[in-house]
């Protein structure tokens, strides 16, 4: 059963993000631990924050949670979050300039402008990541193909132009709301294990790692220079076992390899054999595929170390 979302006009994801959890959010909400509502859980940790859909829902709807720790290995993304947290007015000013310049052009010149900003962003971020650099990241995210964030081995953003007719680039009201809620959060750059010191019996950790590929050709994991390998998936499973031993709670979402190979038992081997771990298969939509007819309904996994039950905020 899916929970009914609580609609708000504040603090929603400011980036389009591959693998973002907006469409899976009702299934995740329905499996949040009850202790989040009672105040027994005081700390929320998200080591793969990405677009932050789950974080924004929780920070808006669970006021009894006092501590938030957001982490990602993508340094550009972390810098962007911190720029919004610390310098949102300056960022909005710069983003509006980009928006006005872009929207005043025809489609051919918009494409040229996009690549000019992309080159400038890649050069600038090597030396300094200012609010203006963060504005360029948001602009590129809103105007590139499919809202992807992908870098090459030189750590340069390399997603092509998206050719949208009327993209929303600067949502200043939302950016200001995001800045407000980020005042409650510590935002760190690093591997998922960097949050270890914050885990306790009163902590809840949401993991949204780069998914295990659902096919041999669906291996889009280059959100940072370093890929998230099969060994990293195993390390993450071991880290979840560690959280369990500390008596913290976690929820992890991932692709279901059985969509392509019914004999792939990776998650049953690494999660299903630990007492108290629950593996749930839920319906989702495959959103990233260059072949249109390969997009559609699939199963995704939601794994917890506690009994799932319906939870709502407040």
Which terms would index this structure?
7-stranded mixed beta sheet; Adenine-specific Methyltransferase, domain 2; Rossmann fold; 314 residues
How many structural domains does the protein architecture include? 2
Shape: globular
Largest sheet: 7 strands, mixed
What percentage of the residues does DSSP assign to strands (E)? 5-15%
Structure, described:
- It is globular, with a radius of gyration of 19 Å.
- Residues 1-7, 217-221 and 288-294 have low confidence and may be disordered.
- The protein has 314 residues and is an alpha/beta fold.
- It folds into two domains: 25-73 and 190-304, 3-Layer(aba) Sandwich (Rossmann fold); 87-174, Adenine-specific Methyltransferase, domain 2.
- 35% of the residues lie in helices and 14% in strands.
């Amino acid at each position: 059963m899916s929970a009914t979302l609580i609609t708000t006009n504040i603090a929603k994801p400011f980036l389009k993000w591959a693998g973002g959890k907006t469409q899976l959010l009702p299934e995740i909400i329905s499996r949040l631990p009850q202790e989040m509502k009672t105040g027994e859980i005081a700390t929320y940790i998200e080591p793969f924050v990405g677009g932050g859909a789950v974080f924004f829902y929780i920070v808006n709807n669970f006021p009894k949670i006092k501590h938030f720790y957001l982490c990602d290995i993508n340094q550009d993304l972390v810098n962007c979050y911190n720029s919004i947290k610390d310098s949102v007015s300056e960022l909005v000013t710069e983003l509006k300039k980009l928006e006005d310049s872009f929207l005043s052009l025809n489609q051919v010149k918009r494409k040229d402008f996009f690549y000019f900003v992309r080159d400038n962003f890649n050069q600038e971020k090597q030396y300094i990541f200012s609010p203006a650099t963060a504005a360029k990241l948001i602009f590129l995210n809103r105007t590139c193909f499919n809202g992807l964030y992908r870098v090459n081995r030189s750590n340069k953003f390399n997603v092509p132009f998206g050719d949208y007719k009327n993209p929303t680039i600067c949502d200043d009201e939302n950016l200001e709301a995001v800045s407000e809620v980020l005042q409650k959060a510590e935002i760190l750059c690093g591997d998922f294990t960097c949050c270890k010191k914050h885990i306790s019996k009163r902590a809840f950790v949401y993991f949204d790692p780069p998914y295990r590929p659902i096919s041999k050709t669906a291996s889009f994991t280059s959100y940072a220079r370093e890929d998230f390998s099969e060994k990293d998936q195993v390390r993450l499973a071991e880290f979840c076992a560690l959280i369990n031993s500390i008596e913290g709670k976690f929820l992890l979402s991932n692709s279901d390899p059985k969509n392509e190979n019914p004999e792939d038992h990776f998650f049953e081997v690494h999660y299903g054999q630990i007492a108290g771990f629950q593996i749930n298969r839920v319906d989702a939509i495959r959103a990233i595929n260059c072949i249109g007819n390969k997009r559609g309904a699939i199963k995704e996994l939601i794994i917890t170390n506690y009994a799932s039950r319906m939870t709502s905020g407040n």
